[in-house]
Design brief:
Pfam families: DUF6597, HTH_18. By secondary structure, this protein is α+β, with helices and mostly antiparallel strands. The protein folds into three domains: 158 residues, Jelly Rolls (Sandwich), CATH 2.60.120.10; 45 residues; 63 residues, Orthogonal Bundle (Arc Repressor Mutant, subunit A), CATH 1.10.10. It is globular, with a radius of gyration of 19 Å. 46% of the residues lie in helices and 20% in strands. A hairpin with a 4-residue loop joins strand 5 and strand 6.
Length: 282
């Protein structure tokens, strides 16, 4: 399996957190076993699938979805199970809070808990990106195709001048300041609490309180993945939960299962991928 992360070019860094490329061949594997749980995360995404078609099961909608060649994913609160095809290639951009709205003009509040085909939202220029990725076999070139598109969008759309709130939002994830009070965050953005909440909702697509819960939930799951020897109570305390019961509440709401059950599903996928995926040229 190929897994690559790349930082965006300097002009895009206020908007894009990172690029990611994944390529795996699931040779001879029962598709039902090539399933990865994808609980909601703080980022919003622009995905491209240049090879075989991806299928997902959306828990919030209770249905299976066949993805087009490219999708925009807005603010999520529901788990999605990824069902990988035999030749899985994904190239994507992860956006900082507010970045998708500012750079691409996406009405994120209208994308709450679902995705949409990129062409329907971003126009025909996305088709050229899809075609170029489908023709490309070099991974570095694929990431370059995506970045060239985003840089062109930046030059063409000329996002609105940055406001204090726009500078604050990308800092919320790495600093963990989503747990700060609404009044404190509003003061940092030079806004009243009501103005801050309205601006946050416009840029991120959900309330600051709900977003803080998603960030904390995501941090808990990633911490347990990185440090499996930590017990769940220690994980809960480290990421700011009052107790284990509150951690379980969020896992059941956002992932539909308890923390150990979600980790077991992720571990099962990792084990299957390690045994069955292989590397071949793109």
């Amino acid at each position: 399996m190929v897994l690559r992360f790349q930082q965006p070019a300097l002009p895009l860094r206020p908007y894009v957190q990172f690029y990611m490329l994944v390529h795996a061949h699931y040779d001879g594997l029962d598709p039902a076993k090539a399933v990865k749980p994808m609980p909601p995360a703080p980022q919003q995404w622009l995905y491209f699938y240049p090879r075989d078609q991806m299928r997902t099961f959306h828990y919030g909608q209770g249905r299976e979805i066949s993805s087009p060649r490219s999708i925009v994913v807005g603010p999520q609160v529901s788990r999605v199970d990824l069902r990988f095809p035999p030749n899985h290639l994904m190239v994507c951009a992860a956006f900082w809070p507010g970045g998708l709205h500012r750079l691409l003009g996406v009405p994120v509040k209208e994308l709450f808990d679902f995705s949409i085909e990129s062409r329907a939202l971003l126009g025909p220029a996305v088709t050229e990106v899809e075609d170029r990725l489908a023709e490309t076999t070099d991974y570095t070139a694929m990431l370059g195709v995506l970045e060239t598109y985003l840089l062109g969008t930046l030059r063409r759309l000329r996002p609105h001048p940055e406001r204090p709130l726009d500078r604050l939002l990308p800092a919320l994830l790495p600093t963990g300041r989503t747990t700060a009070s609404l009044d404190h965050l509003a003061a940092e953005a030079c806004l009243s609490p009501r103005q801050f909440e309205r601006g946050f909702f416009e840029r991120v697509g959900m309330s600051p309180k709900l977003y803080a819960r998603i960030v904390r939930f995501d941090r808990a799951f990633r911490l347990k993945e990185a440090q499996p020897d930590l017990d769940w109570l220690a994980v809960a305390v480290q990421v700011g939960y009052y107790d284990y019961r509150h951690l379980v509440r969020d896992f059941k709401e956002f992932a539909g299962v308890t923390p150990p059950q979600l980790l077991a599903a992720e571990t099962s996928h990792t084990r299957v991928v390690g045994a069955s995926s292989s590397f071949r040229p793109a």
